[in-house]
Amino acid sequence: MLDSLDCPNCGAPLNFISTPLRCANCGSSIIMADEVRPAPAKRDPLVPETTLSEVAALVRAGNRVQAIFRYREITGANLKEAQLAIERFAHGEPLRRPER
Prior knowledge:
By secondary structure, this protein is mainly α. The chain has helices at residues 53-60, 64-75, 79-90, and strands at residues 21-22, 29-30.
């Protein structure tokens, strides 16, 4: 398995997430067998959305105030909804978008 791969056209690092691999720098596409692709990162079962993983990282780092602000930016939640979501997550519940 490869740990990294550079674009054969321009030398920039490639993003392994996209299929086909596409260089963000020059737009070249690279076809690659699945068996040589790195395994995708495991998802956190308490964070169902990848967009909220940044918020989860802030909470885990002890930055609850920043997590609340970022949660509000991502979800459009009001302050009370954001505080409640972050508190619940800190106590082991899944981090979810507010129900509307």
